[in-house]
């Protein structure tokens, strides 16, 4: 356990939490507005937890990491209250993908009823928790059915800060501040991409899969399974299966686990397909090619000497920076 000298009565158990709290403290002391992006990585393989939390949950190492994450977020919120800036601070908690379910016993997460996990475009891979916190501005205990994406955080954050979204470029995210303040619902589609391919689209409660793929047979045969115990025939395919002529459509309200495609001969299917097709056509007409940002690799950017490596004698010298174009396999 670490106690940060500038943070009275706030026990800290990991360096990233301490740095976050210290940053908030110094910004507040200087009376400067701040943006803090705190990305906890303990639940990412290799899963880890601090000594105080190790072995304390009933869900193995992964549960320990989630327990510590919960504690750390609580400490940050408590610190905002202690500094008296909680009513001036907008906090948003979410994740970049669903839980990984292929990391092995006691080191994998759970996506509950949702199909598969990280690296897929099924609900288990794409649906994440989202909690917005802003005392005095967002009513406590409110539950919203609004569809959102991480891309919306840019426009939403600018809005709550009283700033305008840039108009010199295309912005994919929406301003969700009306949802936060008034629980107003914004009718919008969600597009599920894997690389450059639009795999699926959600419009209202309906989700249409134009392509399906969990992971390759090569990986699967090595024991890497993105959908353990959840194989659905014709859906969780291990080859990239095209359904563009007749998409697989699910009603996520009735079938959140994407196990029972709606029959293509039913009126419900035809009505849903008609609505979704119009949305997809409009979306594709407005697409503008972007410059790839995930196709450059450089071994030098890895953390070769993380904090504490000196005590273990495990510090490594970083190689010379030699970036190269690389593949993004999924």
Describe this structure in words.
The chain has 330 residues and is α+β, with helices and mostly antiparallel strands. Helix content is 26%, strand content 12%. The protein has helices spanning 15-29, 60-82, 123-126, 152-160, 177-182, 217-221, 267-285, 309-312, and strands spanning 2-3, 11-12, 91-93, 131-133, 190-194, 197-203, 206-209, 211-212, 241-242, 248-251, 296-297, 324-325. Strands 5-6-7-10 form a 4-stranded antiparallel beta sheet. Strands 1-2 form a two-stranded antiparallel sheet. A two-stranded antiparallel ribbon has the order 3-4. The two termini are 39 Å apart.
Helix-strand blueprint:
Elements: E1 2-3, E2 11-12, H1 15-29, H2 60-82, E3 91-93, H3 123-126, E4 131-133, H4 152-160, H5 177-182, E5 190-194, E6 197-203, E7 206-209, E8 211-212, H6 217-221, E9 241-242, E10 248-251, H7 267-285, E11 296-297, H8 309-312, E12 324-325
Antiparallel strand pairs: 1-2, 3-4, 5-6, 6-7, 7-10, 8-9, 11-12
Helix pairs in contact: 1-2
Q: Poorly predicted ranges (pLDDT <50, ≥5 residues)? A: 1-8
Strand order of the largest sheet: 5-6-7-10
Q: Say how many strands there are.
A: 12
Class computed from helices, strands and strand pairing: alpha+beta
Strand content: 5-15%
* Distance from first to last alpha carbon: 39 Å
Pfam families: Sulfatase (PF00884), Sulfatase_C (PF14707)
Protein name: Galactosamine (N-acetyl)-6-sulfatase
GO molecular function, one term: arylsulfatase activity
Family: Belongs to the sulfatase family.
Keywords:
about 325 residues, alpha+beta, four-stranded antiparallel beta sheet, 8 helices, about 25% helix, disordered N terminus
